[in-house]
Amino acid sequence: MKANFLNADTICALATPHGVSSITVARISGSQSFPIVCSVFTRNGNPFDIDLIVSNKVYYGQIVDNGDMLDEGLVSFFKAPHSFTGEDVVEISLHGSLFIQKRILEILIAHGCRMAEPGEFTRRAFINRKFDLTQAEAIADLISSESESTHHLAINQLKGGFSKELQIMRSKLLEMTALMELELDFSEEDVEFADRSKLKALLQETLNHVERLKDSFRLGNAIKNGVPVAIVGQTNTGKSTLLNALLGEDRAIVSDIAGTTRDTIEETLNINGTVFRFIDTAGIRDTDETIEKIGIERTFKKLSEADIVIGMLDGTLPFSKILQAAETIISNVNVLKQKLLLLVNKSDLMDYAAMCDLNDRFLDDLKSCYENNIEAHGGYMTDEYQFSINGHDLYDLQNWMSFNYISAKDTNDVEELKSTIFDCYSSESIDANTVLVTNVRHYEALLHAAESLNAVQQGLENGIPTDLVSQDLRDALYHLGSITGEITTNEILETIFSRFCIGK
After folding, report:
1. Phi first, then psi: what are they for 175, rounded to 5°?
2. Residue 385 vs residues 162, 328, 365: alpha-carbon distances, Å
3. pTM for the whole thing?
4. What CATH code is carried by the domain that includes residue 172?
5. In this structure, are 413 and 477 located in the same domain?
């Protein structure tokens, strides 16, 4: 049965992972933390007087139970509200044997503690207004961060930048909502307290802000979970060989038999402090084999979801087949949103004349394929090799197309490719103060907020009654408030804090 998180129980748990270590830390939080610890803590054989406690001070002594010493260690006291949870908190540092870890919890429970639920320490900190929900979730992200990029994202959110942006938006909308509610109270007087032109301008400003945050989820989620890089191409182009070379281990089966890879294989690699999630896919070809067809369907799905696509081409094939393979890959990529690296593999088996011939013909022959792709996704070609995105950004197709020779068996080529992949990501990298949405819960709340704000806009344009427009405004406020926890439910809290470890 789940504990009542709003009760006054004094809780305990290990703050360090289970397993043999040099030290282990037991954490206690609640109104009885000090009396419970003082009942089992002695210094030089004398019971420790609770009246002598100085907050934020570390004491050396012994943990005893019925006169028997369990261990010597350090005890730190933190008086409310100046503690992590906002309650009285004690941390006991002892030697990290499995027996000591087990016994210290048994002793604390015997003297009045109960075992903490997952995330209960952080949940109490949230309830006691030490931080909001986004910052609480940032703590979990900080603990699980595995790269410099994910660490920076968690730190940025922990500092409260995202929360401040949401608070500014909510405060402006709350003011407008209050004025519209006031109109309803004086509906018989036919007065208008909320300036409609001002409200429309505020709505557009807020909607733009929400859309920017919502759109940042693609990059934020990629950095948090690993930037997805799909390795795609026809059979026997060297996709699995490349994956193994990037990872430095034989992760994927390499064979001359076409169709060896039937399913996607995913592995992560840290490049210059950023985690990339490489996805080896089934080779693209016409086949009647049922399992292989399913694998190829998954290839196209992973290709569409990737931020970076590595298109593998076999440089030993005739030019017409290389061109056809490249066109298949390009036609399935959104070149305006995804980075595409076309790699002509097996360069060690190509002669210089073949490379020169490919260079001379490749750009011109692929131009129409790129042009169709660009126009299909909302851009358009202008002069010769120029194209535009959103009607204002102008790019040179010759520079936009990434086309390189590589031998997946050559260490130098692979290392150079790693740098190229990182450069693809770093072109979208952010400065230290940029706010990115990394949490699915936040993203979904922003989606709902945007829908409500759009409904308010349409309502104002169409002369919808104030009470209906006001309801849509309240819905937007609800969704924005649910992100930080200003408006929340026990079910949401249960979901969020259940993914924390016990002791945090």
Report:
1. -60, -45
2. 40, 21, 12
3. 0.68
4. 1.20.120.430
5. no
